[in-house]
Amino acid sequence: MINTATLDPSTRTIATVAGTRMRDRCGSLKEAWYAAALSAELTTKRPLGRVILEQPLVLWRTTGGRAVVMEDRCAHRNAALSKGDVFDGKLGCPYHGWVYNGEGRCVEVPSDGVGAAPPRCAVPRFPVTERHGLVWVWMGDTAPGHEPFPMPYWDTPGWGTYYMVTAFPNEVTHLVENFMDVPHTTFVHAGWFRRPAHKRIRVLVERTDSSVLVTYDLPNDKIGFAGRILNPDGAPTEHTDKFYMPNTTRVDYTFGPRRGFTITSTCTPRGPFDTLVYTLISYKLGWLNALAPLWLPWYTREVIRQDVQIMRVQGDNLKRFGGATRFNSTDADLLHAFIESLRDHAERGGDEPSPEPRTQEVFFWI
Fold this sequence. Notes:
Blueprint (H helix, E strand, L loop, with lengths): L21 H4 L7 E6 L9 E5 L2 E7 L5 E5 L13 E3 L2 E3 L6 E2 L5 E3 L16 E2 L1 E4 L2 E5 L21 E9 L3 H9 L4 H4 L11 E8 L3 E7 L9 H4 L6 E8 L3 E8 L3 E13 L2 E11 L11 H25 L13 H14 L10 E8 L1
Antiparallel strand pairs: 1-11, 2-3, 3-4, 4-9, 5-6, 6-7, 7-8, 10-11, 12-18, 13-14, 13-19, 14-15, 15-16, 16-17, 17-18
Helix pairs in contact: 2-6
């Protein structure tokens, strides 16, 4: 819930803006935690400007290290607070120097003189928490009802982890479908992630009230040239893809009982066709863990670069046609249809009956 103080400001409209922000038109999709920054990015030395659901935000830390997230607009003359300074555990506006504390309240107005009582005004704040190396912001109108998504294997003994932060020129729905889509890998990532296997595979797709869970019956799956490093013993491969409402995917490859590789992506929509994706790469490779930082970030970055390129191709073409989709689907697209049903339901407000839980077996070729 956004905290606001009682104000008596001028509300003169400077310009008419067509439409509304995503935050006001996305239904219950806003009732969620969204990643706003890596924890390491946010210091006590300077503020960070961020945009989530077209809502401008300013992030900063108090002297004690507490993260604060506020609307990026000074209560005085609406200058961007993200262009200001952090000092003595407070945030100062770059225009007239109005100073705000960690509760968003104005505590000092330099032009009023030393010791003068500040006006009774504040900048709206947003709930914020830090988990798994990320700063999360609750974008809903209601109080947070749950914790942020538990990014897997962060600070887990035996596992290595690192984040990649990537701007994608496409919408969340299309991105999460791409991250879980197997058939595209033989085209977009040919030779890097998967080569055509000419195999018919069995796939189990389950839709719950808040997730889409996919299990592939492909024990001899090969992950490009990296497969020889990730799975040198040729152990049977277990592959699952999972989507969790409203914006997170988890892709797991398990190679026998001792090795594993997990790609978890949480999507932060900044605007239409503009999404920032925080991807956590988690790996358990035994003694090879020590060598993984020498090559694995380079490899995963190249794979994501290829996804950025194809998501730009799709996104640009969707924009050419006004953003409308005209999808035709086969069995290989069942997981996409399930994802779309959940997100479309939430975008409409979530008040109507939810899509029914369903489990279906499908087959397709890769």
